[in-house]
Write a structure and sequence with these properties.
This protein has about 120 residues and is α/β, with parallel strands linked by helices. It has a four-stranded mixed sheet, with no helix packed on it. It has a three-stranded mixed sheet with strand order 1-3-2, with helices on one face. It is built from two helices and seven strands, in the order E-H-E-E-E-H-E-E-E.
Length: about 120
């Protein structure tokens, strides 16, 4: 077997809010509490465990998604003008997407300051 990332602990000011934000963004569910964590099962191999015991430390998390999932994210963002998103760091939260790597990409900021990058082709 190769190396498979199984889970990550994501520090958040409010673990439930942070888990719900990501779950809603990606069309996933927040799982039942697992110890002190609010888990979001991203795929068969990876769970992101949100933890608010030590405060928030904003991070960057990138996801390769298919076109249907990307379209769903854009539809959600269009319904929520209060969510910051943009085409890339050099453009700020310009409410646009990018076309790096021949696909589409977007950065989304969650209420805890995390940056979620979603793209349909791996940027070069």
């Amino acid at each position: 077997m190769g190396i498979v990332l199984n889970h990550m602990i994501i520090p958040a000011a409010d673990k439930d809010q942070a888990a719900k934000f990501l779950a809603d963004l990606l069309g996933l569910d927040v799982g039942a509490p697992a110890g002190p964590f609010a888990p979001v099962q991203v795929n068969d191999d990876l769970t992101l465990d949100f933890d608010d015991r030590h405060g928030s430390r904003p991070g960057h998390y990138a996801f390769l998604v298919d076109d249907a999932k990307f379209d769903g994210v854009l539809a959600l963002l269009a319904r929520h003008p209060d969510i910051d998103y943009g085409s890339g760091r050099e453009h700020g939260w310009d409410r646009a997407i990018n076309h790096l790597g021949g696909g589409r990409g977007v950065y989304v900021r969650d209420p805890n300051g995390h940056s979620y990058e979603l793209f349909t082709a791996v940027p070069h």
